Amino acid sequence: MTDRHDGPGDLYGPDDSALDGNAIGGLLHEVFGTEMTTAEATCAHCGNTALVAEALAYVRAPGTVMRCRTCTSVLAVVVRRQEINCVDLSGLAALNALSENSGRRSAHSGT
Amino acid sequence: MAGTAVRGRLTWQVATVAAVRPETASVRTIELDLQDWGGHQAGQHVDVRLTADDGYVAERSYSIASAPGEPLQLTVERLENGEVSPYLTEELRAGDQIEIRGPIGGYFVWDGDDASTPLLLVAGGSGVVPFRSMLRHRARIGSNVPVRLLYSARRLPDVIYRTELDMAGDGAEVIYTLTREQPPGWAGHSGRVDAALLTEVAWAPDRRPLAFVCGPTAFVEIVAGELVSLGYPPDRIKTERYGGVGAP
Amino acid sequence: MSPISRGFHGRHADADVDPSRVPPGQYVTKDFPVLSAGPTPHTPLENWTFSIKQGGQTAKSWSWQEIRDLPSREVTADIHCVTKWSKLDTRWQAVSLDTLLAQVEREARYVLAFSDGGYTTNLPLADVTGGQAWLAYGYDGAPLQPEHGGPARLLVPHLYFWKSAKWVRGLELLVDDEPGFWERYGYNNYGDPWREQRYAGD
User: Fold this and answer.
1) Chain B touched by A82 (CB under 8 Å)
2) Neighbours of chain B (3+ CB pairs under 8 A)
């Protein structure tokens, strides 16, 4: 297999454990009450905006971790505690999801 | 209690296995019966949840193999050392119950709305599953959208849906590449999907194609990268990465 | 109530296991599941160091070779992951953290372990001394693989395994406790599997 890295710098090798935001579509729908893979996520660390479907997703962990594909910083973490989803979105500067009706519904963190 | 089909809400619901059908030695298609299935779009997936009698719970996601309008089908590959896939591909039988949540996903979908743009589908191993849904949907709606499926598999017996794919017609081309072993007299491609193969198979960027790439993470990264190098704008490449062990 | 999936039993094999070795809520597995919150780092060994920091300064640092030259031993331990799997009799080649911490004069009560990739986890100093904790670079008779935390990870078997930080690069000695990665996201600050301290407030 070609050795190919997709992360910043030379530190990271090909990472077969990383999925993408499609894999957490069900969880995010549960959390937000709507389809989120087409939502636009802006990284609070590097400012890059990308679709949630294209984010790095780590699903084999004590929680679900969504990371910026550009800089690998954590965007969001969901920890399932019995029947409750504990959601941390502090790695997101913005999250814009397509509204059920029309247009986009957006959330911005205050600066 | 069956999940309520409230618009916008996604709930777990019980599905009964209607039938199971082997596709290859390690791959099986499962047809499911649900009370409240509202349909889906080609390319979407479902989450599956299994509960053991000691309370142990496992969840996984699987792409929908059936076209919108057909009974719900999932195609599952048995992963070595898998926890859920050996059960679904070997033990599960008609009459058994599993839980399903879905359909999920609004990004990796193809509705056939845009008739002007040719479709490139690049599949690594079981990544072909959502493309079967797309191809079936295309046929059902009578679409003329030119489509090429480039399907990378280890060996010919590992090709899923081979009979169906070999019959794809009406502007749908299926191109195989076998990466580990080829049968005697094989006239198709060999080896992994690379820049040379994509240059030959992919639609020229000036036709404004839409590409979907699905399979193991490493496969998707390589193929998506090569398509960008070929001149595909990144927002015309949709990707879906599967877990599992490396590329075919 | 979820229906039982007939014949499904996951990967666990509880049959021949002494129940007194299995903390509450755990399932014993013969596999070694790979769990990860981020990309696998691949630091070249010539650039790798293990450091103990205190008060914002590096108090002591070892190169890879210097760590390998320290006395090590084979450690056999049962490990318990908060995601409910337990693995018994795992074998490691490791240097005791006592050996490393003895070389630093310290006034700390807590440590924050830090790893390549940004992962952190906090522990009381009392839980990483007295033969309870290790820097492990071998597993099952072979070099520790990157997917399992190689070249070296922390090994603290008496706590949930998220405290055994993969790809560890050092310890920060702290006077006041500071939560690490999973502790910030809702997991228990201490993590005793025998008292089932999975989440904050347990």
Assistant:
1) no
2) A, C
Once rounded to an integer, what is the mean pLDDT over residues B198-216? 96
Of residues C40, C82, C182, nearest to A15 (C-beta): C40
Place of tokens 């046929």: B139
Token code pair at residue C12 = 């666990």
Name the residue among B50, B81, B83 with its Cβ closest to that of C5: B50
CA atoms within 13 A of residue C8's CA, in its CB half-sphere: 29
| Residue C24 covered by a domain | no
Residue B192 has what pLDDT? 94
Q: Which of B101, B107, B247 sits opposite A22 (nearest CB)?
A: B107
State chain C's mean pLDDT as an integer.
95
Kindly provide the b/e burial profile for residues C4-31, where b requires at least 16 CB atoms within 10 angstroms of the residue's own CB: ebeebbbbbeeeeeeeeebbeebbbbee
Hey, are the CB atoms on B52 and C5 less than 8 Å from each other? yes
A8 Cβ under 8 Å from any chain B Cβ: no
Q: What gap in Å lies between CA B149 and CA C151, rounded to an integer?
A: 41
Q: C8 and B81: CB-CB below 8 Å?
A: no
Whole-angstrom distance, CA of residue C87 vs CA of residue A87: 29
A96 contacts in chain B (CB < 8 Å): none
Condensed to tens digits (0 to 9), the pLDDT of residues A54-86 reads 999 999 899 999 999 999 999 999 999 988 999
At C42, list the tokens. Answer: 């691949």
> Does C17 map to a domain?
no
Domain count, chain C: 1
What's the rounded Cα separation, in Å, for the pair A75 and A28? 13
d(CA B136, CA B75): 14
| Exposure string for C79-108, b = 16+ CB within 10 A, e = fewer | bbbbbbbbbbebebbbbbbeebbeeeeeeb
Whole-complex ipTM: 0.93
Domains of chain B: 13-104 (2.40.30.10), 119-242 (3.40.50.80)
A56-58 and A19-20: which strand pairing? antiparallel
Chains linked to A by 3 or more Cβ pairs within 8 Å: B, C
Q: What is the pLDDT of residues C23-70, one digit of tens each?
A: 999 999 988 989 999 999 999 999 999 999 999 999 999 999 999 999
What is the pairing mode between strands C142-143 and C168-174?
unpaired
Tokens of B27: 């791959």
Tokens of B44: 């979407």
Judged by a CB distance cut-off of 8 A, whether residue A8 touches chain C is no
Task: Render pLDDT for B163-179 as a digit per residue (tens, 0 to 9).
Answer: 999 998 789 999 999 99
Whichever domain contains C188, its CATH number is 3.90.420.10
Q: Is residue C178 part of a domain?
A: yes
What is the CA angle B154-B111-B40, rounded to 5? 80
Considering the domain boundaries, does residue C119 fall inside one? yes
Backbone φ, ψ for residue B236 (5° rounding): -110, 15
- Domain range holding C91? 49-195
Determine which of B69-73, B143-147, C14-18 has the lowest per-residue pLDDT on average. C14-18
Checking if the pLDDT of B4 tops 50, the result is: no
